[in-house]
Every structure is written in structure tokens, then in C-alpha cells.
Amino acid sequence: MSRTAESYNKQAKMYEEKWENYLSHTHHKMLVNFSSDSEHRILDVSAGTGLLAQHLLEEDNAFSELVLNDISEEMLSMAKSRFSENETVSFTEFPVERLGFEEHSFDTVISMSAFHNYTDQEAALSEIYRVLKPGGSFYILDWNKKGVFRFINMFINVVTGEVIRTSSADDVKKMLKTSSFKVYRSEKWKYNYWNFFLIKAKK
User: Fold this and answer.
1) Is 76 exposed, middle or buried (0-12, 13-18, 19+ CB in 10 A)?
2) Any idea what the CATH number is for the domain that residue 153 is in?
3) For the whole model, what pTM was predicted?
């Protein structure tokens, strides 16, 4: 088990309560920029407790299937409980760098506040590109390693047991382009002591 998975297994039961304001802010930001239709197959590649998926359903975002993937067994267990009676939601536990799906499986992939935890970010982007259909969309929201937040990120890296490999928005855009993505939208902002970015890219 990776140390990131182990850390989130320990946090799972209190995660949403502990990070309520952070989650409310970031999920709202993703939702106002997100779009899908009734034929779309969506993969939330680091779905955690499934909170974003719940918001997608509550706001009537259309899709044919929503796959929630996470390496933390305990976080995913909470997601499974949340959607135990919803047949359009399914669950997998693949590392993002080794997704066990066929090529061109999804219309949309989401990575929410998790890119900084990926052990091999280039491999993760390559896998996400592989499983997307031609013309498919990739939404990524994560920490932006710029300004004062670089020092806050250093502190987070010291105190947490997780893999922390935070990149700047500009660095992520370069990685996306190297992985053959086309960047369609990019936004950067601050919230309390956090720096964030949201990027929408297409295959």
C-alpha cells in the first residue's frame, strides 16, 4: 500500500468534516466549469468519498455512467455506501499511473485536488489521455505552486505522510501539451492561504 493511500485510509471517516470549507469551495469551482451530456461516460480518477459525484447528481449533470476510482480503500468504501442504490455509479481502485481500462473508454475524466499526490505525474497524464475518447475532456483542479504558497506547500510536505509533488499551473500546462492534450481553459486564483488552478484540456 502506498503511503498516500495509507494516509487517506486514516482520514476517511473525518475527511469531509475536517475539510468542509475547502471542499465546498473547490467543488463549487469545478461544478460551475463542468459540462456533460446524457451519453457521456465519466471517470473521476481520484474520487475520494464520492462527494463531487454527489454534487454532480444533485445538480442534474447528465451522464450514462460515472466511474469512481481511488487508491484509498476506506475513502472508496464511503463512496460505495453513498451510492449503494445507484446503478449508474461504479467503483475501481487503480493507481492513476496504471488505469485498468481499455483505450477510448471515457468521454470525460476528472482529477480533483489530487494531482499533487501522483507519484509519476507524466505517467498519470499519459494514462488519462489513453482512456479518453478522441475529443474527450479532462478537468484538473489542484494546488498551484506559486508565490507564498510554495512555503506553505513545504510545510504540508513535512507534516503529511502523503506523496506531495505540487506543480505550478504553468508546469501542468506544459506536461499536458507534452502528453498531446490541447489546453482549452486555464484559471488561477487564491482562497485563504491556498493557491489553486483549474485547467480544462481535450484529447
Assistant:
1) buried
2) 3.40.50.150
3) 0.95
